[in-house]
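Continuing the batch. This is chain 6 of the set; chains 1 through 5 are on the previous pages. Same settings as before, nothing changed between runs. Recording input and output for traceability.
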Amino acid sequence: MSSFRARLALSSYRWIGSAIYPFVWSYLALRAAKGKEDPVRRRERYGYASVPRPQGPLVWFHAASVGETNAVIPLIKEIHRRGINVVLTTGTTTSARVAAGRLGSAVIHQYVPLDFKPAVNRFLEYWQPDLAIIAESEIWPMTILELGRRHIPQVLVNGRLSDRTFARWKKRPALADALFENLALVIAQSDVDAERFRTLGALPVMVSGNLKVDTDAPPHDPQALKEYRQQIGTRKTWAAISTFDGEEAAAGVVHRALKERTGLLTIIVPRHPERSDAIEAALAGKGLKVARRTRRDPLTPDVDIFLGDTIGEMGLYLRLTEVAFVGRSLFAEGGQNPLEPAMLGCAVLSGGNVQNFRETYQMLAKNGSAKIVRDVEMLAKGVNYLLANDDMRRSMIDAGLETVQEMRGALSATMKGLEPYINPLVVKARLEPRNDL
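Output for chain 6:
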């Protein structure tokens, strides 16, 4: 794609967006009906603020969903601690709840404006951020161009590009260059990610490691944990977490294969809890008794499956076991983050489709804390072996904890990269004291 065609494509994107903007309300209404939008705060998606802007310098953070939000929370806390206001935007109701639970009133949460010029302009005119920090791979053309037009520095942190995303951008090099040149800095997770960003036209690029390693272990409700452990007693447990379609059925197959010998309790935590009704129905159709967290069902001895159908309680579910299969890896592609089970003392199993977390899995596997399974039969054998062999399970758990410790340091590296942008705001905040909300 030539630079002329790239400019033409971006211009078309802008005009098409302006044309359909008046009709987006129906799309948002449909999402709200499905529970994917907050109907009370829907105006925020059009760039209308729902709270006053505090006085003083302000950094705008954007994180797409739960994983990205959790990754940047320590970074947000560091910047807020320096006396700088933070507005955090996310795109999902679940990430909004996570932000509220883990950050409280320390920052302002807003839903991200739609990537249409009127909404983006309205948002920027109101909040007037001094710096925009984007998590991982959120590249929205209109937002990036409008920030660039206003000369607001944009930094991509914890940056990563999956194989598929990188391949798409490589087919449009001029378009990629027209967008990525607006980034003042990219702080990438790995050397591979850094080289991919450079190929697409981003400069400068530095490597920090993965911010998700520097996050605290997922929180939990101590009373709920105590009650569930009492109910489970001496039963063996394993968990299938962040599962996608097909993987819950696979977990059911594993459970039926092992239950007679082990008295097993299987914990399933779907990546999208709204699928839980269908998951329960499918498992019950196979003769399995399901208890659900949302119903506060007790884990009686005859319960086969504990369905973790809530958001933000992964810390609870993982503390109930020492063996965890991480989903979106057996049938779906891309994988999910294995760091949470590793840092919470679980031996990690995964399917082979882990392209989005390749480097993390390589480090865990190299140190002996994660093992890859090819199919459901191999998964069942792996779960059975780890439950029956305490020494191997403990060895994998210890290796995982050591690997996580070795991987830490991304937060300090990221803060060092941000210093040229943050330090002037610290001075500005001292000269113009902030009015906390």
